[in-house]
Specification:
Layout (H helix, E strand, L loop, with lengths): L1 H21 L3 E9 L10 E5 L2 E6 L12 E8 L10 E9 L1
Parallel strand pairs: 3-5
Antiparallel strand pairs: 1-2, 1-4, 2-3, 4-5
């Protein structure tokens, strides 16, 4: 019986930690650009930071308002990406100028 409760408690802690990790936002500072035509065909905009590029989308923020501006975006990685040799894909939650 103790083993059963220990196993349940462990599973609960494991799944709670896994769920909280999915909610963590990552931040990227760079200049937002319109996406244009790409081979990977996801995202509406991009942001580059050093040699790393991210494809962006947002249902909350009009990314067109930030084209050619250096900003910091905060977002969640979209599960299942990158594909077709494309960049990481972020769902933007917040932008700071």
């Amino acid at each position: 019986m103790k083993t059963f409760f220990f196993t349940c408690a462990f599973a609960l802690v494991f799944f709670a930690d896994t769920c909280s990790n999915q909610e963590k936002l990552i931040d990227v500072t760079g200049t937002i650009q319109e996406q244009g035509i790409t081979s990977y065909q996801y995202g509406s905009h991009t942001i580059s930071s050093g040699e790393t590029t991210f494809a962006l989308k947002s249902e909350k923020i009009d990314l067109n308002n930030y084209i050619d501006k250096k900003v910091t975006v905060f977002g969640k990685k979209v599960e299942g990406y990158p594909v077709d040799g494309g960049p990481e894909f972020l769902e933007v939650q917040k932008i700071e100028d």
